[in-house]
Backbone:
């Protein structure tokens, strides 16, 4: 029940911001057709009803979730309105009055919120009961009404015309209404029925019963009912002559015998805003096409900006250079000192990013994990999950570290957080469980992707190469020294990465790369904006990996090729411990001689 109440409370807060926006937009659309103002209130209804929303960079809402359900268990309760000034006022009050004290058996909010939830249900039930009683009372009054025609009835029990009913709505007109004016009254009520206003007003009242505690939504309901009447008036009078509009206005004045009580029904002819409605009717002019088109554009833009939540801040909001710099700093401060690792991953749960005076400060929960590759599997070496503050300044073209901060352990943890983090971030900075599982999954996915790529690379039989003028040039992995020189050719075709090029200007890593000749025996290929060095070596073009080197595979026995596959699958430290190297490998390395047997290596002839 508490979580449901908090969800309703959050939706009402978001809808409150939309109500404020609609009040401004109604002024902007004052010359537009009245239906456009009614449509604006639909945005409020959608926000109140829809259980989810999407994030958008165009969102004008300050916050997607003002009150988290975690507030029930937070040591220092806080809200995130998205407006720093409001947060600065509200959060100190919440922290001082609702934070649990040492020795408390329960968090105060765990008592207060359920009580508020019960009051919320009671208030909604009371308003619904009021609506039902009023509807039933009106139905009794018109039970003796006389049918005039179709679904139109006359009665002496009420003094105002209205629509009653939902599935089969009926129009009731007092006997006291002048017959000539009655036709205008009936036309107005029939327009309501055709537009489905009797159902829309019911929806509005039901929503008000759910969100009765929000004062802005009471104002919204009143203005919505008012705009329904204006829109209906315009639909009726758009085809009337000026004299007929005057008669329609007189009928409206005669039927406005006083204000009626709030409810889902009825849709009464003279219910609201009579003076302004008369003024609008008498001065009505058919809106121009460009005004209608402009209103449609405003409605579409409002839907995008008001029905979406603001994007949560993310590390990707920072420029690429700063992201790389932050990653280096995180690795530097968390790297294991006692052993080498094969791969490390970082995940950020960003709480805030602040920029001031040329400095950028990141507030985030940082998950850092290290892995080793063991027998084709990932083995976690170490991991840490810490709320961290990193401040960096850009000096010239490079970033410099200003501060790398983490809290102390034990009792100092909470005190350090409160000293370092803005008050509105205290709750998130102390909630280590909020995103840890998501961050773990992100790091595991990165590590798995790295492992698959490593295994793929270790299975390559052929070194990246290109054939030019009948010669094979093999990748060295080195970047050429800076220098000028125009391309002298281009790689025009390619084969699979496990195959050997068979014709000039062909590679096994792609096509469209310019190349030029470098120092004797080398070729420089432009890849990703860099000139990479390829060197010519004698051989058939078939090369096989031996650790971090490549050797000509032509003529190697199956036993040697099997040994190389086993050797290349080992971690680097285990490769260094291998004491046996097949004679053929020695020969290809130009070392000569023989190796000694290794107990774990595949036996010759197996």
Residues:
């Amino acid at each position: 029940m508490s979580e449901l109440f908090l969800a309703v409370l959050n939706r009402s807060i978001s809808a409150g911001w939309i109500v404020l926006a609609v009040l401004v937009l109604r002024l902007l659309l004052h010359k537009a057709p009245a239906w456009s103002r009614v449509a604006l209130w639909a945005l409020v209804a959608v926000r109140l009803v829809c259980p989810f929303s999407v994030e958008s960079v165009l969102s004008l809402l300050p916050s997607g979730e003002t009150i988290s359900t975690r507030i029930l268990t937070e040591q220092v309760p806080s809200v995130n309105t998205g407006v720093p000034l409001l947060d600065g006022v509200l959060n100190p009050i919440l922290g001082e009055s609702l934070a649990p004290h040492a020795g408390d058996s329960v968090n105060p909010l765990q008592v207060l919120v359920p009580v508020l939830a019960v009051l919320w249900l009671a208030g909604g039930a009371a308003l619904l009961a009021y609506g039902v009683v009023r509807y039933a009372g009106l139905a009794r009054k018109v039970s003796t009404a006389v049918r005039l025609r179709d679904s139109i009835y006359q009665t002496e029990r009420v003094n105002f015309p209205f629509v009653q009913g939902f599935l089969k709505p009926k129009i009731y007109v007092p006997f006291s209404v002048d017959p000539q004016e009655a036709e205008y009254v009936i036309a107005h009520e029939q327009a309501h029925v055709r537009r489905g206003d009797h159902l829309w007003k019911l929806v509005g009242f039901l929503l008000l019963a759910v969100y009765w505690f929000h004062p802005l939504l009471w104002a919204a309901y009143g203005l919505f009912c008012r705009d329904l009447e204006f829109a209906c008036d315009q639909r009726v009078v758009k085809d009337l002559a000026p004299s007929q509009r005057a008669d329609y206005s007189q009928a409206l004045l005669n039927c406005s015998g006083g204000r009626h009580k709030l409810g889902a029904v009825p849709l009464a002819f003279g219910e609201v805003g009579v003076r302004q409605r008369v003024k609008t009717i008498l001065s009505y002019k058919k809106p121009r096409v460009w005004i209608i088109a402009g209103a449609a554009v405003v409605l579409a833009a409002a839907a995008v900006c008001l029905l979406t939540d603001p994007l949560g801040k993310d590390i990707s909001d920072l420029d690429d250079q700063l992201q790389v710099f932050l990653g280096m700093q995180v690795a530097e401060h968390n790297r294991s000192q006692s052993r080498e690792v094969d791969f490390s991953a970082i995940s950020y749960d960003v709480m805030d990013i602040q920029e001031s005076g040329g400095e950028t400060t990141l507030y985030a929960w940082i998950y850092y994990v290290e892995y080793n590759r063991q027998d084709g599997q990932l083995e976690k070496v170490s991991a840490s999950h810490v709320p961290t503050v990193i401040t960096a300044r850009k000096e010239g073209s490079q970033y410099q570290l200003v501060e790398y901060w983490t809290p102390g352990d034990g009792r100092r943890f909470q005190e350090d957080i409160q000293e370092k983090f803005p008050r509105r971030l205290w709750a998130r900075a102390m909630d280590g469980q909020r995103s840890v599982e998501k961050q773990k999954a992100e790091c595991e996915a990165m590590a798995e992707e790295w492992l698959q790529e490593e295994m793929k690379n270790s299975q390559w039989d052929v070194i990246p190469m290109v054939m030019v003028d009948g010669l094979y040039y093999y990748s060295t992995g080195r970047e050429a020294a800076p220098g000028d020189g125009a391309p002298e050719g281009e790689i025009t075709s390619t084969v699979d990465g496990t195959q050997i090029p068979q014709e000039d200007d062909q590679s096994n890593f792609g096509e469209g790369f310019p190349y030029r000749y470098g120092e004797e025996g080398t070729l420089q290929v432009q890849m990703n904006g860099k000139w990479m060095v390829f060197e010519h070596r004698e051989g058939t073009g078939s090369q096989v990996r031996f650790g971090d080197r490549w050797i000509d595979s032509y003529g190697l026995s199956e036993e040697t090729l099997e040994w190389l596959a086993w050797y290349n699958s080992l971690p680097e430290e285990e490769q260094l411990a291998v004491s046996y190297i097949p004679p053929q490998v020695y020969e290809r390395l130009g070392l000569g001689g023989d190796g000694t047997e290794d107990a774990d290596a595949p036996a010759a002839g197996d």
Observations:
- The two ends are 69 Å apart (CA to CA).
- The first strand starts at residue 55 and ends at 56.
